[in-house]
Amino acid sequence: MRMGADRPKQFLPLLGEPVLLHTLRRFAEPTLQVARLVLVLPADQFATWQQLCAEHSVQIPHTVVAGGASRWASVRQGLAELKAHAEGVVAVHDGVRPLTPLTVINNTYTAAAEHGAAIAAVAPKDSVRGLSKDGSYALDRARLRLVQTPQCFELNLLRRAYQLPELPTFTDDASVVEDLHPIRLVEGDYRNLKITTPEDLLLAEALLQAR
């Protein structure tokens, strides 16, 4: 079951604060030394976010830009906000992943600085099967990874990738970049939840309380 809430998932309360604020706070951690924080939201959510920032006295410097009709278009809009920057490493992250360990963020940034492109990923815990017209077949889970975010890239590499036309096969930023550059995998974390269902929110609360 998906989240049957009266507001977008990123604005749902998580221990009294919006999910998105928890996420923003992770990347604002001083040890990461992130130079710019850009939030990409639908234009009709700007007022809600501004109200939440006021309610929770948010002092984290960040820029909010309007997204597009797809993830690809939204990332492109976020990149446009960085036009004044000539170089660097940019991280693309899901706003509904509020528990990403700082070690995962830092390691992914570092790997992208060294190799050009790096993403966080974890090994599947369960057996995995592929589908065919005749039924299904076993896959070797040792050769598979579950992709998370952050996904980090050398800035100009990501710019070049997003100058190409959008394709249906673009499910994340790595799929946009991979024809131009190899993708380095960094060990993710099973606590790096993407909050999609009510159960995810309950688990996120439990994990935060356990810290």
Automatic annotation (TrEMBL):
Keywords tagged on the record: Isoprene biosynthesis, Nucleotidyltransferase, Transferase
Transmembrane segments: none
UniProt entry tagged with the keyword Manganese: no
EC number: 2.7.7.60
Pathway(s) annotated for this protein in UniProt: Isoprenoid biosynthesis; isopentenyl diphosphate biosynthesis via DXP pathway; isopentenyl diphosphate from 1-deoxy-D-xylulose 5-phosphate: step 2/6
Annotated positions for site Positions MEP for the nucleophilic attack: 141, 194
GO molecular function: 2-C-methyl-D-erythritol 4-phosphate cytidylyltransferase activity
UniProt GO BP: isopentenyl diphosphate biosynthetic process, methylerythritol 4-phosphate pathway
Uppermost EC category: transferase
Reaction catalysis annotation: 2-C-methyl-D-erythritol 4-phosphate + CTP + H(+) = 4-CDP-2-C-methyl-D-erythritol + diphosphate
Record site feature (Transition state stabilizer), residues: 2, 9
Role description: Catalyzes the formation of 4-diphosphocytidyl-2-C-methyl-D-erythritol from CTP and 2-C-methyl-D-erythritol 4-phosphate (MEP).
HAMAP family: IspD
Family statement drawn from the similarity comment of this UniProt entry: Belongs to the IspD/TarI cytidylyltransferase family. IspD subfamily.
The protein's name: 2-C-methyl-D-erythritol 4-phosphate cytidylyltransferase
